[in-house]
């Protein structure tokens, strides 16, 4: 089972420090939720883990099974089994969904053991059916003209197809209607396994009604300031974040 560890992580963008010493450990079989007010650095954390070049790590460490993630190039991180469903997935003109997924799957395989086209199409068709996606999305250019909800479903399709070891979902629930939310949650729950850990970043508690986390962390001002169980998410939904600021003497 994977062990994913972040220790004392500091990261900045354009000289502005956003992550200010964040520590977290996610093990196979566990679902961690990170909640926090807007602008607190949640997406920065996700992008930093995946190696987005905009973010500069100035201190701390990230490791997967003892391997130094910060030393890996972006594609090596994906090959090691890190997966990010982005808050704002990008559109890629000229690359179809099927092309993109097939090369992503093959990039994780040894040379000579690439997935056959027939097997790939069968898998993709069956996963798309599970997600109640229109089969025509297979041949559309990646995210081009997709609605917000279609983009999010497509991110979940990638997750199902790529079989990652550590899954990071960044506000996968934002902009989803209740049916899409249920479908996304079903996909996540179907992927729950001892061989996989989840980091679910969410602004609202509602996804956590369908996917029960083992741990809930509150992120504020670039750090995790409080951790608990699912009851913490319910309290945040009911009372917001001010009580935590008061409790911890955070001024913003
Ligand atoms: P969250 O996901 O918690 O809403 P973000 O990680 O998106 O927060 O943003 C954290 C902080 O980093 C915010 O203050 C935001 O304005 C800043 N930030 C994010 N992206 C950029 C950027 N490209 N340039 C400058 N500042 C940025
Ligand atoms: Mg935000
Ligand atoms: Mg964000």
Plain-language structure description:
- It contains eight helices and twelve strands.
- Helix 6 links the parallel strand 9 and strand 10 (197-202).
- Helix content is 34%, strand content 29%.
- It is α/β, with parallel strands linked by helices and 252 residues long.
- The protein has a six-stranded mixed sheet, sandwiched between helices. The protein has a four-stranded antiparallel sheet with strand order 2-1-4-5. Strands 7-8 form a two-stranded antiparallel ribbon.
- The chain has two domains: 6-18 and 30-40 and 49-81 and 164-178 and 189-252, Rossmann fold (3-Layer(aba) Sandwich); 90-163, no CATH class.
- It has helices at 42-50, 74-79, 97-107, 117-130, 148-162, 178-191, 230-239, 242-248; strands spanning 3-13, 16-27, 31-35, 55-64, 67-68, 82-85, 92-96, 141-142, 166-170, 197-202, 215-220, 223-228.
- It starts with a strand and ends with a helix.
- The protein is globular, with a radius of gyration of 18 Å.
- Bound molecules: adenosine-5'-diphosphate and magnesium ion (MG) (2 copies).
- Residues 42-43, 87, 171 line the site of one magnesium ion.
- The site of adenosine-5'-diphosphate has 13 residues, from strand 2 and helix 1.
Query: What is the correct CATH architecture of the largest domain?
Result: 3-Layer(aba) Sandwich
Q: What value does the average pLDDT take?
A: 93
Could you say what the CATH topology of the largest domain is called?
Rossmann fold
CATH domain class name of the largest domain: Alpha Beta
Domains (count)? 2
Order of helices and strands: EEEHEEHEEHHEHEHEEEHH
Enumerate how many helices there are, as a single number: 8
Structural class: alpha/beta
Give the terminus-to-terminus CA distance.
39 Å
Low-confidence stretches: none
Q: What are the bound molecules?
A: adenosine-5'-diphosphate, magnesium ion
Q: Strand content of the residues, in percent?
A: 25-35%
- Rounded to an integer in angstroms, the radius of gyration calculated over CA atoms is 18 Å
- Beta-strand segment tally: 12
Shape: globular
Main beta sheet:
6 strands, mixed
Mind telling me the CATH superfamily name of the largest domain? P-loop containing nucleotide triphosphate hydrolases
Q: What percent of residues adopt helix (DSSP H or I)?
A: 25-40%
Strand order of the largest sheet: 6-9-10-3-11-12
């Amino acid at each position: 089972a994977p062990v994913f560890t972040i220790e004392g992580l500091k990261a900045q963008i354009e000289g502005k420090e956003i992550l200010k010493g964040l520590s977290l450990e996610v093990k196979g079989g566990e679902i961690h939720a990170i909640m926090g007010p807007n602008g607190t650095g949640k997406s920065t954390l996700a992008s930093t883990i995946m190696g987005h070049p905009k973010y500069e790590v100035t201190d701390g460490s990230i490791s997967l099974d003892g391997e130094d993630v910060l030393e890996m190039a972006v594609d090596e991180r994906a090959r090691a089994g890190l997966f990010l469903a982005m808050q704002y997935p990008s559109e890629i003109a000229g690359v179809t969904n099927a092309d993109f997924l097939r090369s992503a799957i093959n990039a994780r395989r040894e040379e000579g053991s690439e997935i056959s086209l027939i097997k790939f199409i069968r898998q993709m068709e069956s996963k798309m059916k599970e997600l109640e996606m229109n089969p025509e999305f297979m041949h559309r250019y990646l995210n081009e003209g997709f609605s917000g909800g279609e983009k999010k479903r497509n991110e979940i399709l990638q997750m199902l197809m790529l079989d990652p070891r550590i899954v990071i979902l960044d506000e996968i629930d934002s902009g989803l209607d209740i049916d899409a939310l249920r479908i996304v949650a079903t996909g996540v729950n179907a992927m729950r396994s001892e061989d996989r850990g989840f980091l679910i970043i969410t602004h609202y508690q509602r996804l956590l009604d369908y996917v029960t986390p083992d741990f809930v962390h509150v992120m504020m001002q670039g750090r995790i300031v409080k951790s608990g169980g699912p009851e913490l998410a319910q309290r945040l939904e009911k009372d917001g974040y001010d009580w935590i600021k008061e409790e911890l003497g955070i001024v913003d």
